Every structure is written in C-alpha cells, then in structure tokens.
Amino acid sequence: MGGSATTRVVSTSGTLTISGNVAVSSDVTDQFVLQGDGNGVISGNISGAGRVTKSTTGTGRWILSGVNTYTGITTISGGILQFAKRVSLYNADTSKWTSANITAAAAGALALNVGGTDEFTLADVLLLQNMGFVAAVDWDWTPLMLRGAPLT
C-alpha cells in the first residue's frame, strides 16, 4: 500500500453544484481536486485533514461558500478558487492563512468576495497580500482576484 489518495470532481462545462457537505480524507497527504473548464460551486461544508486543490486541468472557477473546517493545504495550480465568505477559508481562522497553507501558481488565482455581510474585509486582503498575493491586473471587487504566492 502507501501513496496518497486523490478524489477528483470535474466540471467540463456549465456549473456543477454540490450542496451537501464534503468530508475530505483524514490523511494530510490525500487531496480533494477540483478541475475542468466548467465552473463549480460547493455550498456545503468541507471538513477533514486532506488538501484542497484547484487543478491546472481546466480554467474553470470553483466557488466555496460553506463553513469549511478542513485543515489541509489549499493549492491553486490553475483557474480560479473563490471563497465567498470568510468562514469558507479555514473557518475564518486567520492563523491558518499562511503561505505554508495557501499557495497559488502563476496560472491560478485566489478570489475573495469582499465587503458584504460575512465577506472578507480590507484587513483580510492586506493579510493575504502580506503573504505574497497581489491584486491581479484585471481585478475588481466582485470578487477581488489575488495572484502570485508561488507554489513551494
């Protein structure tokens, strides 16, 4: 045995919606991968110790809007991973918003809903920018697109 397990969810076109809760693996080396040229929305809560990855396979946007308590690394290798609410990113625990836990490649973008009820604040954006994320050239506030924290 050995090795890491990977669970992939693929949206090839349109928008795939997952409204139920998602329990990722309790193994920190396992990963839950979101991919495809289509878009996706996960409104349920994501929990567990495994990693959450937006894959380089496809350019789609995945939106996470649940109360996510997963503790694994968040990686954006390509496309867009959008967090609709503060609690969608490590249950709003800013001590977990570190460059060790959140990484994005040049082909990927972290998107945040900013300014609304339960959404990210300017202080949150500045915290992420201090980690190395920068506002994308084409950014706007609906959502704010951050790029640049390199994969390690």
Structure description:
- The chain is mainly beta.
- It has one domain (6-147).
- Helices cover 6% and strands 34% of the residues.
- It is built from 1 helix and 14 strands.
- The chain has one helix spanning 122-130; strands at 6-10, 15-18, 22-23, 31-35, 39-42, 46-47, 51-54, 61-64, 74-76, 79-83, 102-104, 108-112, 134-135, 144-147.
- It has a 7-stranded mixed sheet with strand order 2-5-8-10-12-14-13, with helices on one face. Strands 1-4-7-9-11 form a 5-stranded parallel sheet, with no helix packed on it. It has a two-stranded parallel ribbon with strand order 3-6.
- Strand 13 and strand 14 (144-147) form a beta hairpin.
- The longest helix has 9 residues, at 122-130.
- Residues 137-141 have low confidence and may be disordered.
In short:
The protein is mainly beta and 152 residues long. It contains 1 helix and 14 strands.
Distance between the termini: 27 Å
Name the strands of the widest sheet in spatial order. Answer: 2-5-8-10-12-14-13
Question: How many helical elements?
Answer: 1
Radius of gyration: 14 Å
Order of helices and strands: EEEEEEEEEEEEHEE
Portion of residues in beta strands equals 25-35%
DSSP E strands, number: 14
Structural class: mainly beta
The pLDDT mean sits at 86
Task: Determine the oligomeric state from the structure.
Answer: single chain
Unreliable sequence segments? 137-141
Overall body shape? globular
Work out the helicity level.
under 10%
Integer count of domains: 1
Largest sheet: 7 strands, mixed
